[in-house]
Amino acid sequence: MVGWTDIGEARLLAPGEHRVVELPGYSVLVVNLQGEYFAVENICPHDGGELGGGEIEGDTVTCPRHGACFSLKSGEVLAPPAFEDLLCFRVQVEAGRLLLAQEPEEGWS
Ligand code: FES
Predict the structure, then answer these.
(1) Residues with CB under 6 A from ligand 1
(2) pTM (global) more than 0.85
């Protein structure tokens, strides 16, 4: 069973904002896209660039190192030089708090 980590008040991550959260074993980029929350791994599978320092435009993030582009909603790689998708993490809001799944979705059973 996957646990959840309370990462703070939802209202503090406004639409268009993002933050990086460190979980045991994972660095996670959490974004608010027009009121919906999404989370993907923060480390680029191409060569370890930190996506939290990249440009977020619409629902995509561009790696600051070599320009690979990823969907923030699905983790799908949209432009090289990366060829692997990002892991995705579930986010939910409970009583005004943001809860982040402690394991990526692919690990869920
Ligand atoms: S490390 Fe991200 S594109 Fe190279």
Answers:
(1) 44, 46-49, 63, 65-68, 81-82
(2) yes
